[in-house]
Amino acid sequence: MALDRWIAFVILCVALAYGYAAFFTMDGLLPPFMQRNPIWPSTFPKILSVLAVLTALVILLGLEKPEEDKDGVGDIDYRKLGQYNLAHALLLLALMVAYALLLRPAGFLFSTFGFLTVGAVILGERKLHILLPVAAIASFAVWYLVDQVLGIFLRPWPFFI
């Protein structure tokens, strides 16, 4: 089996466990006034788990490949992993960990702006005059929607401000 199908199998297992938690364990401790709401805290995890399971199944069953590519020419070869550009993938993983660790002390706006900016540079974006305003607007828009519209508090600034 190709590497992409093994990865899809691992994602399928994680998505099934996540879906089990979302469908059967998250709503048990809801207070009575929230049980009458049309949208519960588990609504997004339920949707996310169903979409992840469907996507993993599409990859696992090979439905995304055209008929002429069924011979395996376009598959990822795990024996040639050194030839792929793994540095960017590992840098992005390290950046995600750094983002998660800096979210509280640096604040949402600074850490999200930094994550979007550095992530885009790692992926090859060189037009900083476009990247910086887009990252700033996206960071502020997400913070505004979550904090002001949804009412979920996100510390926007670092802890010392």
From TrEMBL:
InterPro entries documented for this protein: DUF1468
Record-annotated membrane-spanning stretches: 45-63, 84-102, 108-124, 131-154
Domain DUF1468: 6-154
Record bears the keyword Nucleotide-binding: no
Keyword set, alphabetical order: Membrane, Transmembrane, Transmembrane helix
Name of the molecule in the record: Putative tricarboxylic transport membrane protein
Organism: Shimia isoporae
